[in-house]
Amino acid sequence: MGVLFSGTSSGHHPPPEVPEPQQVVGSGMLSPMRLPLGPLLLLLGVLVPALSACPGDDSGSDPTTTGTPSSTGDDPTTTSGPPPTTMADSSTTTADPTADPTADPSSTGPDPSTGTTTDDGPPQVTMETNLGTIVIELDQEAAPVTVSNFLAYVDAGFYDGTDGAGATIFHRVIAGFVAQGGGLTEAMVQKPTMAPIVNESGNGLNNVRGTIAMARTNDPDSATAQFYFNLVDNPFLDDPPGYAVFGQIVEGLDVMDAIGAVPVDGADNPVEPVVILSTTVQ
User: Fold this and answer.
1) Dihedral sign of CA atoms 193, 196, 199, 203 in order
2) CB 11 within 8 A of CB 56
3) If we measure between CA atoms, which residue out of 229, 226, 275, 223 comes closest to residue 248?
4) Is the separation of the CB atoms in 256 and 131 below 8 Å?
5) Edge-to-edge strands of the sheet including 124-129?
6) CA distance 150 to 116
7) Residue 39 CB: number of other CB atoms within 10 A?
8) CA–CA distances in Å: residue 221 to residues 60, 99, 241
9) Is-contact 84 201, C-beta < 8 A?
């Protein structure tokens, strides 16, 4: 799931002032204005390159401009993105360095090819938390890879801990922005994940209130298990490369709001853990 800041120094140094040539009275030297054309051109040929080679001066650049480094996506007041699975740090992520996009797909993570599918309409996942129950409807048509990936984690018991590795929590909550979870246990230990998936942002689904989307690092194709709920409309998260929305809450918006209102510490971690107790596919 970074801050914008601007510099005040351009890093350029003004060119040194060049003193006017002085006449030496009584020396018999020629005044600068009386130098023959050849020596005068030679003098100019020495001074002009010296000015252009002034240390610290970038040729052609404007010394009055200041750069604005891009945000990592952690600050909801910026427009460069968040939640990102490594948001929690977007945590560095943005957006959160808590996610591990380099995890070995053959390790302990579930197999995305085993994700539950249904021919009876869009699949729905019931997520029970210690603050209440949320029902999420997934959009397989708009985000087939993301939905399959999410369902694989659900089926494997990754989120609710029936895999034996511990239940996951909502580890990053920012009121008026997002509630992010699905990657860390109550002990704030990150669970091993499958390989990252392709970013399906731009699929026609937008980061509006009540939707679920994948968190990621600054690499667009780095999402693994972590997801977030949009507590409000966050249109800037749709800006390319964007964060992939893959479903929406159809029951339990009040529970989402309750999660979004919990007290948090300085790192946006809930003071009292918000735990995912069970996830089932309907």
Assistant:
1) negative
2) yes
3) 229
4) no
5) 168-174, 178-185, 227-230, 211-214, 245-251, 132-138, 124-129, 276-281
6) 9
7) 11
8) 37, 12, 9
9) no
Q: How much is the pTM?
A: 0.64
Token look-up 């003004």 returns: 14
Read off the pLDDT of residues 119-168 as tens digits, 9 standing for 90 and up.
678 999 999 999 999 999 999 999 999 999 999 999 999 999 999 999 99
10 Å CB burial of residue 51 (0-12, 13-18, 19+) is exposed
Q: How many helices (H) and strands (E) does the chain have?
A: 3, 8
- Which is it for the CA torsion 149, 154, 159, 161, positive or negative? negative
Tokens of 223: 């999402």
Q: Which amino acid is at 75?
A: D
